[in-house]
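Input/output pair, single chain:
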Amino acid sequence: IYFYLGLNIFVISIVIGSFLLVQRLYSKTLNQKTKLKTFVKAVENSDNNIIITDIDYNITYVNEAFERNTGYSRKEVMGKNPRFLKSGEHDANYYRHINKVISSGRVWVGEFINKRKDKTLFYEKASISPLIDEGGGNIEGYISITLDLTKEREYQKQIEANNLEITYRLYNDSLTALPNRNKFIMDIRHE
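Output:
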């Protein structure tokens, strides 16, 4: 009877231990799922364009901001190389440099002038990072996070145009467009 009772206690302790282990693993999995859901929401709701590619630069993911900012749907771009966004404003050396940096496992930060689906140009500040596996340190793909700078560039161009207009008016007569007294004084000072 003692043997039978001891065996039952042993079996019960294994069952309880297994239950506690399963409960702990379930809690850990549930916590990871919650974190993953939070991460997905953050990426989807970001105002930054996010593109993830495989090792061969084929798109495996784009977020909603990418769709809004470029005019391309996820369905249109999946499996494609992001080069379809090229505007022609950067030469081949520019892209070779980027590939050299990211394929060596480093992060590249810079700017692009890209083309939307409707053929309009847009300016982006970009950060492209390799996605490294946990085991051997091999690159599995890349993530590009970009910020649209188009409005800022337009404001900058407007400010520059305004500065030119102000300078012109400062040094030229408004009726004749000939150099005025301010221009004369400035020229004398520079000589």
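Strands lie at 49-54, 59-62, 108-115, 121-132, 139-148. DSSP finds six helices and five strands in the chain.
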